[in-house]
Amino acid sequence: MDSTEYSITITKRAEDNLDEICSYISLNSSHEQAEIFLGEIINKIENLKILPKKWRKVPELNDPNFREFIFRRKYRVIYQIFENTNTIEIITIFSSRMLLRL
To answer: Which of 4, 15, 76, 89 has the fewest beta carbons closer than 10 A?
Structure first.
């Protein structure tokens, strides 16, 4: 079993997505709920360091290096695995009701 640990980067687009989602939660629920959401999703992203291929391939793409996990049954977190540099790039985070648009 491979024990390589990957580093994680997050695109500006994904950062903006997180900001928008947290702002929405803060306005429609509470600031505390937005903080909890952010902590939980960051924790799940950090877990990719050890098992980046655990989650499914992105159905809209024909590339095994593009993966996604569904967070809280509401949000798709799309990421790309770069085997040559042991890096994972978080590309975008959006509603699971939507199709991917890159």
So the answer is: 4
Rounded CA-CA distance 46/99 in Å is 24
| pLDDT given for residue 48 in this prediction | 96
* Buried/exposed code over 19-41 (b: 16+ C-beta within 10 A; e: otherwise): eebbeebbeeeeeeebeebbeeb
pTM as predicted? 0.89
Instruction: For residue range 27-44, list pLDDT tens digits in order.
Output: 999 999 999 999 999 999
Q: What is the dihedral of CA 31, 32, 35, 40, to 10 degrees?
A: -140
